[in-house]
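User: Sequence in, structure out. Go.
Assistant: Echoing your sequence, followed by the structure tokens.
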Amino acid sequence: MSVSIITLLAPIVGDLVKKIIPDADKAKDIDKEVKLALLDHTDSLESIRGSIVLSETKSDSWLTATWRPLLMMVIVSIVAMNYLIFPLMGLMFGVELMIDLPEELWSLLQIGVGGYVVGRSGEKMIEKWSNPK
């Protein structure tokens, strides 16, 4: 869930504020406050998600502690097979192999790989909007 509903709502709420309040400066201030509130809420959700992941990694159960990394390894293996191994086999043996990968697989990979980057980006955006230069 890399792209949360809050991230999707922020521009919509901003556009509504601009339509409801004709004064541009006032609309910008309200828009900024709404976006900050949405980002603050996103930060708390990310914190909760992080605590869940941390609890899982500290679990005594091997499966509970490693299921996320194992899932990412499986997805990376599938992508590697499809875009590295199969094409090389095709070159060597003249057989074209390609598996259509579902969109959900790419989404999961993006979430797994991009989770940290998105979290840090959100923190930086909150800091920038909280302390304008």
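User: And one key feature?
Assistant: Helices lie at 5-20, 24-57, 62-93, 103-130.
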